[in-house]
TrEMBL record:
Signal peptide: none annotated. This is Heat-inducible transcription repressor HrcA. Pfam families: HrcA. GO terms for biological process: negative regulation of DNA-templated transcription. SUPFAM superfamilies: GAF domain-like, Winged helix' DNA-binding domain. GO terms for molecular function: DNA binding. Residues 76-223 form the Heat-inducible transcription repressor HrcA C-terminal domain. Belongs to the HrcA family. The keyword Ion transport does not apply. Negative regulator of class I heat shock genes (grpE-dnaK-dnaJ and groELS operons). Prevents heat-shock induction of these operons. It comes from the Bacteria.
């Protein structure tokens, strides 16, 4: 990735966080009004053009504003954002639900998937070591403007009928990252472009792993999504080992 100046990083961070909250391309006047970057509107516009040329932002054809690309989102996740701390009451509440099912493997996984779906208002999913798919919160994605497009929603939900395609998408996440983030923009499926997948592996046995995570819009609130996914993964590992 290209080196970004401190000013460009501050601008990218502001644009990503504005876009995560409002799902609208961000104009220079919004940045000037709401974020104290200490530069003129003209400078903000010049830097937005530079970030676009570098691949961190894109300009949707119907708008004067800019939205982050998957490359911009990844830079934000890796370099700029700070993960939120889950509250103790939240952690205890999820832990009690999961641990109450620790002796019933299937119920445990369902509870974990439901916890993610409910807390993050997204579609939660898990695939166990035998390829069985669990999901919850399918209706949640309808709360997000990205899924008002019926073709996008249909394609995402069809993944649960066509298991091989879901396995293929999840199989793209290679490497040792503890949590994998896949952006639809980086895949060849047209209707996945506005979406993203966040998932992690959990230990079924010493040799076998399952996968758990969420599907939602590309502009997920990653500072919150990542700690939730990690926490539920850790609980699953703990419950399965009991």
């Amino acid at each position: 990735m290209a080196d970004l100046t401190d000013r460009q990083q501050a601008l990218l961070k502001a644009i990503v966080e504005e876009y995560i909250e409002f799902a609208e391309p961000v104009g220079s006047e919004v940045i000037e009004r709401k974020y104290n970057l200490g530069v003129s509107p003209a400078t903000i516009r010049i830097e937005m053009v530079r970030l676009t040329d570098m691949g961190y932002l894109r300009q949707p054809h119907t708008s004067a504003g800019r939205a982050p690309t998957s490359m911009g989102m990844r830079f934000y996740i890796q370099e700029l954002m700070k993960e939120k701390q889950l509250s103790v009451t939240t952690e205890v509440s999820i832990k009690e639900k999961l641990m109450s099912q620790r002796l019933k493997r299937e119920r445990l996984i369902k509870e974990a998937v439901s916890a993610l779906a409910q807390r993050l208002d997204m579609l939660g999913l898990a695939i166990d070591d035998e390829g069985v798919v669990y999901y919850a919160g399918a209706a949640n994605i309808l709360d997000w403007p990205e899924f008002y497009d019926i073709d996008v929603t249909r394609f995402v939900l069809s993944l649960f009928d066509e298991n091989p395609r879901l396995q293929e998408i999840i199989g793209r996440a290679v490497g040792s990252d503890p949590v994998h983030i896949l952006f639809g923009e980086d895949m060849e499926f047209e209707y996945l472009r506005p979406t993203s997948f966040v998932f992690t592996k959990y230990d079924v046995t010493l040799e076998r792993e399952g996968v758990i995570g969420v599907i939602g819009p590309a502009r997920m609130n990653f500072p919150l999504v990542l700690p939730y996914v990690k926490y539920v993964r850790n609980l699953l590992n703990e419950a399965i080992r009991v």
